[in-house]
Structures are given as structure tokens and as C-alpha cells.
Write a structure and sequence with these properties.
single chain, alpha/beta, Rossmann fold, 7-stranded mixed beta sheet, 5 helices, binds glutamine
Length: 186
């Protein structure tokens, strides 16, 4: 199975390594041709506004929308979650909008407020979770299942083939959240 990792900005290497440790072929996606044959696509953490600008510049927005229409599963972490959300409550634009949630950017605080905790993830168990200027989910649509909360804030959710998490599973050794995503990829 081949999984693409959007590789225009952000912590791409950590995602590639996590996927390789699970025995799947992980490819860095920088141009439309890199999407060829992927069974799933990961949107890493980083800076959502910068990633969006670079995706447009690289001609990747349309091909990604096509992949979504064709039913390929997507997993967005942190900035990746912001890119996939339908609405951003504290930002004038929205990006792909593939999952019916509203998110608040930087809701967990500034860089210096970064923290690591443990979360109970539905269907997975307790996992370590790193939060860095993370978005919190402020609204979920009727088709969305919340999979984890942190201090009462929803931080992980799924709607159909779209999975999102506010935290960074790629920064811990625990790969069970990726395993959940890989089961969605078949
Ligand atoms: N605050 C960033 C944004 O708004 C996300 C931070 C992260 O991915 N660690 O895009």
C-alpha cells in the first residue's frame, strides 16, 4: 500500500518515518504526479496558511479535490486538520472543507504553551498526544464522530473517509492512530 504525505511545508519527515515503520510505502507529495496510485493522503502539521499557499502554487489543490471525490481517505494533523475543516472560526478563509467541523486556530495557546498529555481515543485506547499551537474543534456536523477530547475540547474526529487530529501522532513512538487511518485505507 502506498500513502502520500503532503510535503510542501511542515513536519513531513516524521510522518514518512512513522508510515514506513508500519511497513507501508510512504511518498512525499510535492507535485500532482506524486499522487499517482496513493491509497491515502496525510496532511502534516506546520502552518496551514503557508501549506495552502504552496499547494495552490504547486497545482495540487485540484488533484487533491479529485482524489477526495474518488473516495481516497485523508488524515490531517494539526495544520492538516485546519486545511481539511469546513470552517475556521478565527480566520477569514477556509481551505479544502472536506470535513464538517469548525476549528479555532492556535486554540491550545502559543508555542511556549505546547504540552504533551495522554488521550483516550475511541476504538484505539490511551495514546500520548503532543499539542503545539493546536486547533480545537468548536462545532461538529451531524455526520461527524468525535474520537477524542482534551480538557473537554474535541481534538480528533472522523467523517466518512476523513480523519483529523489536533495533535501530532508522528512525534511519538505510538503508531496506533496511524493504524486506525491505515484500516480506513483498506
Ligand atoms: N497553528 C498552526 C496553524 O494555524 C498549526 C500548528 C501545528 O501544525 N503545529 O496552521
Amino acid at each position: 500500500m502506498k500513502i502520500g504525505v503532503i510535503a510542501v511545508q511542515g513536519d513531513v519527515r516524521e510522518h514518512l518515518r512513522a508510515l514506513e515503520r508500519l511497513g507501508v510505502k510512504a511518498v512525499a507529495v510535492r507535485k500532482p504526479a506524486d499522487l499517482e496510485g496513493v491509497a491515502g493522503l496525510v496532511f502534516p502539521g506546520g502552518e496551514s496558511t503557508a501549506i495552502w499557499r504552496l499547494l495552490k502554487w504547486s497545482g495540487l489543490v485540484e488533484p487533491i479535490e479529485q482524489l477526495h471525490r474518488s473516495g481516497i481517505p485523508f488524515f490531517g494533523t494539526c495544520a492538516g486538520m485546519i486545511l481539511l475543516a469546513r470552517e475556521i472560526v478565527n480566520w477569514p478563509e477556509r481551505f479544502f472543507g472536506f470535513i464538517d467541523i469548525a476549528v479555532e486556530r492556535n486554540a491550545s495557546g502559543r508555542q511556549v504553551d505546547s504540552f504533551e498529555t495522554e488521550l483516550e481515543v475511541k476504538g484505539v485506547g490511551r495514546v500520548p498526544a503532543v499539542f503545539i499551537r493546536a486547533p480545537y474543534i468548536r462545532r461538529v456536523g451531524p455526520g461527524v464522530e468525535v474520537l477524542a477530547e482534551c480538557q473537554g475540547h474535541p481534538v480528533m474526529a472522523r467523517e466518512g473517509k476523513v480523519l483529523v487530529a489536533s495533535f501530532h501522532p508522528e512525534l511519538t513512538e505510538d503508531l496506533r492512530v496511524y493504524e486506525l487511518f491505515l484500516t480506513m485505507c483498506g
